[in-house]
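Tokens as discussed.
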């Protein structure tokens, strides 16, 4: 009898120990520490409690509606099933868009073009008039150096050619403005897929410049060019941004890789997006980023890490910086900070429809030495146009 009692006590003890252990195991597996990432890790990341190597991260790719597999604090990357997407829209063809949107550009920049033409067409151009010309250019955000260059060139030509013939003045101004805008820059923004992997475009810029909207519009542009596109919502700072991006993608049948967790690791989402892009053999993967400008070191850490993680399986072929044309000098300052942090290869200038400061195109290109590739001219889904130097200058002058 005492033996039986001892046996029962031992059994109860064993069950109790197993129960506590099991509960602890569940807690551990369900509660990833705040700082752990589901994606690949860099050497400078904090030590993980449970390491998820790139291969293991595959487990976190799931379809919407599927039961969450892991802890809620860990980012879960979702790949919407293509079958769930609504019937895809057919976006407007890309070329010729600037012609359609030209009126908007011309409308907001009347002061620049028309003002200059009126000033230059006067019978006598004295110093006061030259001052006014200079002021007009500076007010249009052309920048000091290009303004001086343009005024000097115009002074020289007016001296030789005169200013009586309006057509001649128009042509003269057109030629000189065109030189500043530089039609020789490579503005191609429709990349080809690499033989074994997609072309990867990283899109950077501060919140509110129109970055997510621009990626959505660009997805349409690329789809209109028969490209297979996949979006990566690595702007995890604001969860709604990922939803917004996915909605843009859904409209044209483009999948989006995103995390449902606010503040999930952006590099992890970028990694998953590129991997999905490789697996699905798409042509182009576009990665949205948050790029908060709280300080340069933070920005450098975030964007640098996203880039490094992408480069574990592909190359970052293009870094597009999105800038809001209405912010003037502030935009230039932003551009400078981003250019110091990442290798910006092209610029998308948004909200050019809402500003008379078309000269910002020249100032930004000069500042960064990279071309403006696309311009945003409205809130409509197809109000993004490839930048064309000649059409742009013509719109300013007409
Ligand atoms: N008029 C005009 N509005 C634009 C243009 N591009 C974007 N917008 C508007 O600018 C606002 C901000 O756009 P978002 O795409 O949300 O900006 P964001 O930079 O991605 O901001 P976050 O998502 O917070 O990172 C939206 O209301 C857009 O419709 C443009 O070219 N012209």
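Sequence:
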């Amino acid at each position: 009898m005492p033996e039986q009692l001892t046996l029962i006590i031992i059994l109860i003890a064993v069950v109790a120990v197993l129960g506590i252990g099991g509960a602890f195991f569940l807690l551990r597996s369900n509660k990833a520490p705040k700082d752990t990432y589901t994606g690949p890790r860099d050497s400078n990341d904090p030590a993980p409690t449970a390491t998820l190597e790139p291969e293991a991260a595959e487990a976190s790719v799931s379809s919407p509606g599927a039961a969450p597999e892991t802890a809620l604090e860990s980012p879960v990357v979702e790949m919407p099933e293509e079958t769930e997407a609504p019937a895809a829209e057919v976006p407007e063809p890309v070329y010729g868009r600037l012609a359609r949107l030209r009126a908007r550009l011309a409308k907001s920049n009347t002061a620049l073009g028309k003002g200059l033409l009126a000033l230059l067409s006067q019978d006598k151009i004295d110093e006061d008039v030259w001052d006014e010309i200079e002021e007009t250019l500076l007010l249009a955000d052309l920048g000091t150096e290009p303004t001086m260059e343009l005024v000097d060139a115009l002074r020289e030509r007016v001296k030789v050619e005169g200013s009586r013939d309006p057509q001649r003045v128009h042509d003269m101004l057109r030629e000189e403005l065109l030189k500043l805008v530089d039609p020789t820059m490579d503005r191609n923004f429709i990349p080809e897929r690499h033989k074994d992997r997609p072309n990867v475009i990283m899109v950077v810029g501060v919140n509110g410049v129109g970055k997510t909207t621009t990626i959505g519009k660009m997805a349409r542009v690329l789809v209109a060019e028969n490209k297979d596109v996949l979006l990566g919502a690595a702007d995890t700072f604001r969860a709604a941004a990922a939803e917004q991006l996915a909605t843009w993608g859904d409209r044209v049948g483009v999948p989006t890789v995103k995390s449902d967790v606010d503040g999930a690791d952006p590099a992890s989402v970028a990694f998953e997006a590129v991997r999905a892009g490789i697996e699905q053999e798409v042509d182009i993967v576009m990665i949205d980023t948050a790029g908060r400008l709280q300080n340069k070191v933070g920005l450098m850490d975030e964007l640098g890490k996203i880039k490094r993680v992408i480069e574990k399986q592909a190359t970052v072929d293009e870094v597009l910086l999105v800038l809001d044309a209405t912010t003037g000098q502030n935009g230039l300052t932003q551009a400078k900070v981003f250019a110091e942090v990442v290798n910006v290869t092209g610029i998308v200038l948004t909200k050019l429809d809402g500003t008379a400061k078309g000269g910002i195109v020249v100032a930004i290109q000069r500042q960064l030495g990279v071309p403006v590739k696309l311009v945003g001219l409205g809130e409509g889904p197809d109000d993004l146009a490839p930048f064309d130097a000649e059409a742009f200058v013509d719109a300013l002058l007409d």
